[in-house]
Design brief:
alpha/beta; Rossmann fold; 7-stranded parallel beta sheet; 6-stranded parallel beta sheet; 17 strands
């Protein structure tokens, strides 16, 4: 394993201009986000760099630490015309309509922000070539499993076209709407595609007039003509011969599109899954042709055996069976933990319904006992837990089975049947009393990415690679964690001894006669560190690797030399 300093140094030497797409998949705590911010400040010769993140706090950090940084904010935060912002809050209009006839638009803070291109940060909805096309580099802090649906809905289209027609007084335009309406009824996709631009232009012309007249009901009717949805459906329908009523576009395709236009894309993602990326890239090239894009994946291999990861019982503590099988065990465990540590030393990550932050002020969560806590799915990239000595994970995060199947269908343009997989899960829970396991099935890759990667990420929230931590997991522990930290399985009947600090027979530093001293000497010559040697020779004390004993033996070996 490499040291944290070595991994950080390798990170600093990465040049995002070397490849069309660079994937920074180093472990949490190595410093990917910090490196991205530092890169923006150090490389002033690069004219335009963008940062995409769903984490508002991260963008605020960028705003404080990156010179000349512009955080693109929503209209409701910066529009200087309250009446038009009110329309936008009702989700009636988009920016181009609201700003189109506004007398303040030339001096508006909201409009001006889009003219700044040097160092820009924005939420994920701005991940689109129309916003970041032409940028030199774009850092993206986002999962690659997000998708957008494009669905063909004739009934809603016909209703919206009727509202649009009521605003038309020119026969040529009326004829266009009527012909478009017939094409919708007859699934005449060729005509819909050919006349799409004309209908879009007509829609926005009518919307502007309706805004000036302040006719809210008419605005709603016209706005309901969702041309973005229809346009996306037509795009993928052309590729797949309109073989279904809906298509899904992986969000990562927008990053690929930006890379094809010349922007260097950098993905910041510790839970990155190479197999999933390759499958999505293959789909992209199958649908849109060979891209010629180059990419490189950067990883790290840091460990800290002074951080202890206690795997309590080895059970999954799954959400669907939690109350019935595991709740009492979790409650008893926290009661005992509460006696061992001070409350301000502990942070809990668990299911949302057990989390303090999800409850009315003053009401304790069922399992939190007043400890600080957050829920699964809400912790990615956060460093707020770093000063906590103890992290407790209760449960195993997992998407519902139907959601996993639908995500697979969306990512790979398939039609798997959710009930089939739901029956598999039901049988495993009821008959085998275990967390649903889809290894060997199509959705194995989704379960791995959504479950294990989330679990991996939350275990790293206290930054156990940077300093020694105590981590208790009542749920699954990914294999990677077992290598990075001192992994200590704990049976149910060993919990009292663990938390009460009862002495164990093996708690001594007598040199085990089974230690291969010749091999240890050879490892010293290979310049292995103490942790690597303790792991290889299985030298333990109190269930964790005994680095101090190795250090003592190393000193003895050095003195003899």
């Amino acid at each position: 394993m490499q040291t944290l300093d070595n991994a950080t140094e390798e990170l600093r030497n990465i040049n995002p201009l070397d490849y069309n797409i660079s994937i920074l998949a180093q472990q949490p705590g190595v410093g990917k986000s910090t490196w991205a911010r530092d890169y923006c400040n150090m490389h002033t010769e690069i004219e335009s760099i963008g940062i995409i993140s769903k984490r508002h706090n991260f963008l605020k950090e960028c705003e404080n630490e990156i010179k000349e940084f512009c955080h693109w904010e929503g209209m409701e935060r910066s529009c200087q015309n309250p009446y038009r912002a009110w329309f936008q809050k009702l989700d009636i209009l988009n920016r181009s309509i609201i700003c189109g006839h506004c007398s303040k638009r030339n001096n508006c803070k909201y409009n001006k922000q889009f003219k700044k291109k040097s160092r820009v940060g924005a939420p994920t909805e701005y991940l689109d070539p129309k916003y970041f096309g032409g940028f030199d580099i774009l850092f993206i802090e986002e999962k690659i499993t997000e998708t957008k649906q494009y669905k063909y809905e004739p009934a809603s289209l016909i209703t919206a076209l009727s509202a649009l027609k009521s605003e038309i007084r020119i026969k040529k335009q009326t004829d266009l709407i009527e012909r478009f309406n017939e094409a919708v009824k007859n699934n005449d996709y060729k005509y819909l595609d050919a006349s799409f631009s004309a209908i879009r232009k007509l829609k926005y012309s009518c919307l502007r007039r309706a805004v000036e007249e302040r006719d809210k009901e008419l605005i709603k009717g016209i706005k309901s003509l969702d041309l973005e949805m229809l346009g996306g459906y037509l795009k993928y329908g052309r590729i797949h011969a309109f073989d279904r009523d809906e298509y899904w576009e992986p969000q990562i395709f927008k990053a690929f599109n930006l890379a094809k236009k010349g922007t260097r894309v950098v993905l910041l993602h510790a839970g990155f899954d190479e197999e999933l990326f390759k499958k999505l890239f293959e789909r992209y090239e199958n649908e849109f042709g060979k891209s010629g894009l180059t990419h490189k994946i950067y990883t790290s291999d840091v460990g800290n055996q002074e951080t202890n990861c206690y795997h309590i019982t080895g059970k999954a503590f799954g959400k669907s069976s939690f109350d019935h099988y595991y709740k009492k065990l979790a409650e008893d465990f926290l009661t005992k933990l509460n006696k061992k540590y001070n409350k301000d030393e502990i942070y809990i990550i668990t299911f949302k319904k057990h989390c303090v932050s999800n409850l009315p002020k003053g009401k304790d969560a069922e399992l939190s006992y007043g400890f600080d806590s957050m829920h699964f799915g809400d912790t990615s990239g956060l460093n707020k837990f770093e000063d906590k000595k103890v992290l407790v994970i209760i449960g195993t995060f997992s998407l519902p089975v139907r959601d996993m199947v639908e995500k697979y269908n969306g990512l790979f343009n398939q039609d798997l049947n959710p009930p089939y997989f739901e029956r598999i899960a039901e049988r495993q829970v009821k008959e085998e009393h275990k967390h649903p396991d889809f290894r060997g099935t199509e959705i194995e890759i989704i379960q791995r990415v959504e479950k294990e990667n989330e679990q991996y990420d939350v275990i790293h929230r206290t930054r156990g690679l940077r300093s020694p931590k105590e981590i208790y997991v009542l749920g699954i522990v990914p294999e990677k964690i077992k290598k990075e930290f001192s992994y200590i399985p704990v049976n149910e009947n060993e919990i009292d001894g663990l938390l009460n600090g009862e002495p164990k027979e093996e708690d001594n530093r007598c040199i085990n006669p089974n230690i291969d001293l010749a091999k240890m000497t050879d490892l010293f010559r290979q310049k292995k560190n103490n942790t690597e040697i303790a792991r290889e020779l299985k030298i333990r004390i109190d269930r964790k690797y005994d680095n101090d004993l190795v250090k003592m033996l190393r000193a003895h070996f050095t003195d003899r030399k």
